[in-house]
Amino acid sequence: MSIKVLLIEDEKNLADMIAFFLEEEGYITERVHHAREALQLFPKFGPDIVVTDLMLPEMDGNDLVDAFRQHSTVPILMISASTMLNDRLRALHNGADDFLCKPFSLKELDARIKALLRRSAISYPDKPAKEDKPLENTGHVSVNEYRRTLFVNGVEIEVTHIEFEIMKELYKYPGKVFTRNELMDRIKGSERAYLDRTIDVHISSLRKKIEPDPKNPRYIKTVWGTGYKYVT
């Protein structure tokens, strides 16, 4: 199965170098240099993953991610010359699944892409139908691990891949207190790349999506000084 990558990078030489490398690695790659081109190409190309620069002509990369997130949960890897923590946090909060600072190794780019794909449904296209069922329904929230979908009161909620992984781990073990490090280990394994506070950003986003009152969470509880737990 060939993986389709939509690459959005306004530096033509860099875009050509990345595209050449990815194609040599077996990916099907479409590259564009402007956000508007990406929005037009996206539904036609149907990428399995998006790699986009943060600073783009016509539209900020975060706004582009937001536009994609209106109708898709495709994995998104943000690349940027910025090393500012606030830029990384904003990108993740807006819906990007990973953030890679320039300059970077093309091998690392490939590793990040593979890591995101492993955590997406594309990694499991041939599982039997009997596995296509939610985890035990606890009422307000239910999780379908095979389809990687989250439901709140029976309504499907769009979440990023990292948000889904966090919710899945919390959901599997109601009442268990997870430290930030434990959640990072379960989600990223040996490929951990984020600061612990990044977990807080994803938890905050999840609460906005599943909690009746995100400021007074009922389901994802903070255990001060330790981490988080899910309460049914």
UniProtKB/TrEMBL annotation:
PTM-bearing positions, type 4-aspartylphosphate: D53
Lineage: Bacteria, Bacillati, Bacillota, Bacilli, Bacillales
SMART domains, sorted: REC, Trans_reg_C
Organism field: Paenibacillus illinoisensis
Residue ranges annotated for the Response regulatory domain, each copy included: 4-117
Keyword annotations: DNA-binding, Phosphoprotein, Transcription, Transcription regulation, Two-component regulatory system
Protein's recorded name: Response regulator transcription factor
Location of the OmpR/PhoB-type domain: 133-232
InterPro entries in alphabetical order: CheY-like_superfamily, OmpR/PhoB-type_DNA-bd, Sig_transdc_resp-reg_C-effctor, Sig_transdc_resp-reg_receiver, WalR-like, WH-like_DNA-bd_sf
PANTHER family, per the entry: DNA-BINDING DUAL MASTER TRANSCRIPTIONAL REGULATOR RPAA, REGULATOR OF RPOS
This protein's record includes keyword Transcription regulation: yes
DNA-binding annotation, residue ranges on this chain: 133-232
SUPFAM superfamilies: C-terminal effector domain of the bipartite response regulators, CheY-like
Pfam family, one: Response_reg
